[in-house]
Write a structure and sequence with these properties.
Layout lengths: L3 H10 L10 H7 L3 H12 L7 E11 L2 E13 L2 E6 L30 E6 L5 E4 L6 E4 L6 E5 L3 H15 L15 H5 L10 E4 L5 E4 L2 H14 L11 E12 L8 E11 L2 E7 L19 E8 L3 E6 L8 E5 L11 H6 L2
Parallel strand pairs: 5-9
Antiparallel strand pairs: 1-2, 1-7, 2-3, 3-4, 5-6, 6-7, 8-9, 10-11, 11-12, 12-13, 14-15
Helix pairs in contact: 1-3
Amino acid sequence: YPSELLMQKITEDNQIPVHLHVSVSLQYVAGLKGRALVEFFHSNIAEVENEELRHLMWSSVLFYKTPNVEVMACVLLSTKAIYFLLDDSFIHADEHQSDFWNKENSDCENSSFHLSCCFVLKLNDLQSVNVGLFDQYFRITGHSADHIVTCLTRDSYSTHTFIQQLMAVLSLLARTPSPEPVDKDFYSEFGSKNTGKMENYELIHSSRVKFIYPNEEEIGDLAFLVAEKMDGLTNLPSLNILLYVLAFQVNHVEGSAQNTSSLQPKTLILTSSDLFLFDEDYISYPLPEFAKEPPKRDKYQLADGRRIRDLDRVLMGYQTYPQALTFVFDDVQNQDLMQNLTLDHFGE
């Protein structure tokens, strides 16, 4: 340890997504290669001398205590813990949550010393992993509200790779074996006999950590919600969700020094007749076991919705991934314009 193959893989993964800005301290981490990166992990991050770095990933993260603040993080998976190396701007992002972070080192702000805070989730404290729809994100749950983190990878490959690496590392943990399960048939294993309703698909790892995947009913619930937002314009049986993707809406900020663009996280849902943008709560659902009351907001909140037949053109940027798309709609105030046209023109 570390093998050449591992060092090469970690070096390849150590790239900040081009559309997201990070602080100088994280830019320094992103500039490290190979053995320098492993040495940095052991001298600055690792808590135990004999732990091994197994996987590195850059991702936006959300914390249960600060659900409105999405922050960029370098996620490091070792044989002992998951480390989230966070942008130092996050400490000041939400003043109401100041007790969540230790601010002892705030006197370093004005010096040339760049501070990053590191959030640690020990593998022994890990209880469950919820994988989001179409592997666009996953939520890691520990034993308290302080230990719930969602990684918004916005990429099924990154999610899949991390989950595979996490399962491999959890297999190394020595935990007391759970009692032998009673043999069950398929229906009693995955269905509730009282309601006949299929539960979310659960995989219980040998380390007793649950990996929970969404089932087909989540898509059905989402289709029903979308149909509600359409005010009954479409009958539900014919409504199909063609695409679900976590994206950013670009808001152009004029008057600033360089006319910068701010990125607003949005869930894009495409049906056969409409295009929707939702504000989605990625961290509160499904409710953790210790939650005493439901979250303050719904899982999906409609931000914008347009009919496909009003779509005039789609402009595509020429840059590499992530691709920028501009949807141009006909700006018609009254959507049912054709309804009374004959009366207006040819009536009395």
